[in-house]
Amino acid sequence: MVHVLYGMNPGKDIGFYMWIDTGMVALYLAVLIGIGLRGRVKDVKGFTAAGGKYGTLTIFASLSASYIGGGYSSGNAAEAFSEGIGMTIALFGFSLSTILIGKYLVPGVRRFEGEATVGGIIGVCYGRAARVLTGIFSFVCCAGVVGAQMGAIGLVFNVLLGIPPRLGILIGCGIVLLYSTSGGLQSVIMADLVQFAMLAVGMPLLLIMALNRTGGTEAMLQTLPSGYLNPFNGTTPSGFFSMFITMMLGEALAPPYTQRLLIGRNPKGTARATIFSGLFSVPFFIITGMIGMAAYSLHVTGDARAAMPALVMEILPTGIRGLVMASMVSIILSAADGFLNGASVGLVCDTVRVLRPDMSGRAELWWLRAVNLATGMAAVAVAFVLPDIFNILVLAYSFWSPLILVPLAAAMLGVKSNGRAFRYALLTGLFSCLVWNYVLHKPLNIDGAVVGILCNLLVFTACTRSYQKYRVQRVIMCRQK
């Protein structure tokens, strides 16, 4: 169909034009590799970008590129292709939380100047043991997200370039490992700037040309099943509400995002960058959701997971197709590299270094690179075994928001508490989440992460009030003496 559409001759001509598009993708990947090799760091401070003091525009672009991964782009398109607008609207929960974080929590980072990790914040407020636990769970969460992105890159390479999915996973992971292991977070941020520009141009361009093919938005909507405009299609009101809350809180203050909040030049600029990033996500989610529905309307594939890449191959001409292909690759790599760095930095800086305080800077940098490589290889294994991107993401976030989010947000708000409150809340959140999901099998179609966050909040609040009451009593007793 492609050679008929663009006036090409079968065989030699179509191969030539496809090589042009493939060459554009290869050139883009070469740029990323060059960024990593040129930005090779020589110490831990460079690897974590501690004290980087990045400006508002850089934080905005890097933060946006980090959260827009396979799940929020091709995954959203796949859900819109198969069920309609429900997931797109649920994703607005993430937009809302990002805006609220920028407005109310980011100003609190000034109390943690010099820290570069989530565990650093937690350690200041709740002690050494809390920092060690945070490092472990940061690693688990981030490694799971990287696995999801690797699964997405395998699918994209397969549909766009005809590369077998597992080989595509190996290629994508190899490139990310090369520049993230060499240059650390500094190279990741530089790559994010390129990736943000690519996705900000590529996705709107794909939607514009898709709607042009369908005859416009109204004509496209008329071809969809009636239930596709119902957010409860394929689920229940409680299930939709659960997904909205999961999207709102599941990824909030995840390690790569919090890292970027800590390296801003000043809290005001970082707060603005965060708010702008949340606002940017709203039209982006709408665009990727509409791309999925346009793919359904044009019948480009029968596989929902391939909706976005199949649409790229079906409707775009040579050159533009190469640009959008590179944009799709950039979307996935931009999320993978940030979470890969978050996994290694969390485990090494917040767990290994705390348990081995006498470790030299050279040894710590070696550990960071070794964990970075090991995490990437583990992510490949996860992507080979578990093909469902959204399920991997939901599972990964089960080890973040029900455990760490509430104490972390409280720390940024300046709430005084202690390590006991942190530990009890973490264990309660983890236990309740796992029991709800895997023993009770999600009653009312509500995800366990929502239940875990609520239980964590209740226990943390109770323990914190007890601690604060105890502190008041101690002050009174000291004054009486």
* Main sheet makeup: none
Task: Estimate the mean pLDDT confidence.
Answer: 86
**CATH second-level architecture of the largest domain:** Up-down Bundle
Structural class: mainly alpha
CATH topology of the largest domain: Sodium/glucose cotransporter
Written account of the structure:
There is one protein chain. The protein is mainly α. It folds into two domains: 400 residues, Sodium/glucose cotransporter; 66 residues. Helix content is 79%, strand content 0%. It contains 20 helices and no strands. Helix 5 packs antiparallel against helix 6, helix 7 packs parallel to helix 15 and helix 8 packs antiparallel against helix 17. The longest helix is centred in the middle third of the chain and has 50 residues. The chain starts with a helix and ends with a helix.
Short description:
The chain has 481 residues and is mainly α. The protein is built from 20 helices and no strands.
